[in-house]
# Entry
Amino acid sequence: MPRGTSVGFVVAILPCGLGAAGAASAFLPCGSGVAAAIFLGGLGFTAAILWRGFNVVAAIFLGGLGFAAAIFGGLGFGTVRTKWADPLEGYVEETGCSCALVQAHQKARVQQIRKPRKFLHIPLQQATVLPKIPQTMVNPTSSYCRINRAVPILQLYFDEAVDLRNDLRLSRQSILSLTAAIRLDSDHGWERDIEVLLFLFWLGHAASFRVVSRTFDIPKSSVHDIVHRVSSAIIRILRRVIAFPTGDDLVAVGEGFAQLLGSPAFSSTVGAIDGCHIRLKPPAATAQCYLNRKLFHSIQLQAITNHRGKFIDIFVGYPGSMHDARVLRNSPVFTGSLYPPAGKCILGDGGYPCLREPIYLITPYREPVQNPVQQGWTTPHSRARNIVERAFGMMKTRWRSVFFKAMEVSPAFVPEVIACCAVLHNIALQNGDIVEPEVGENNHDGPPEALNPGTRSGEHVWDDLAAAVSAPDIRLPALHDHDYL
# Structure
């Protein structure tokens, strides 16, 4: 082999080896350093063989280009490509992510990106756009959804020794029951517990979204979305929490009324019905329709409760100018004869008509009563009606910011908020979270309206029920000594 050729061969092979070493140090099986070194080194080797006059010069020149490509491509481009191929590494360093699920997702994604490719580099947009991480993999400590434990209301929540009823109007056990019962459809990282706390704070204080945003250190737009999302989730469980009793539960309700009123004549009573007015800011075009007899704008809430004050049916949304009896006639419980079942009755005040059909509704004697027998029926009947009024009082005391001033929300959203309050009332009762009512209201709307065709009056049963209530529970011993037949 000529001397020039041997020198060119050595000079050409040397940068090829350096290029391979540079590429290997960058973990690139087919990196740009190797490609450039082999290509340019090969040109130098060919020149050393073919061009003997310029073999040494050509080999040194082309071999030097291969060496430079090895250093710049293998070490420089290799480092850049490694950074592009592992875009989640910076995300983990910035957010302090430690969730095992997210790390597993990252590892699998990085391994997928690091597979050998047929091209020499990865475009930036292709390397950084990752598939959506499932909600179960979202790390609660990420920069977007990290809980700010410096927020005072959250400090109270995480301190298990603190009573939350002063700030959130529900006990801790009631809040946990609510959180476990609802399902939230969310596409971001806010925890379900935090969303429930935010909704309860907004409901308990009737605060603006701006105030709630500052209290929880959450964007105002997110506060709006969370409030509506949680309220919708509560409405979805309404029929599980507020439902008519059946079977043994129905018998227990009748026994509860009989025990509460001290007479077995009330064992067929399975509910008490009444209505109340909820303040709101009415639409300007129809404001007069919402003006009630107490001269403030409201909507009607009709409710039926059991003997413990638990709501078993609600009907909300009609304007305050409507009479209680008209609201009843338009409610599903009346039009569909849903409750009470055959042989059972519910009790209502004098604002409702005494009915036998389509529902069995018993009202008190009209004032003034004529004799002690009628009075003996009216007094326990009034105590039974006080159960539903007490339930309204408990709910209004718990959510006084909602019920004692006009709500600053859309009128279309008010019925949903009131229904949420009724659901939360039942959840609180189930967990022993009882609030004594501070005030009571007289919701009597005056004499009932005339009966519609198809309804049947129940006034003929007044005397029978009054006689049953007035009859002694135990026969006196002296009565056994005589036969009156």
User: Anything to note?
Assistant: The two ends are 147 Å apart (CA to CA). Strands lie at 269-279, 298-305, 311-319, 345-347, 355-357, 361-362, 456-457. Residues 168 and 201 are 5 Å apart (CA to CA).
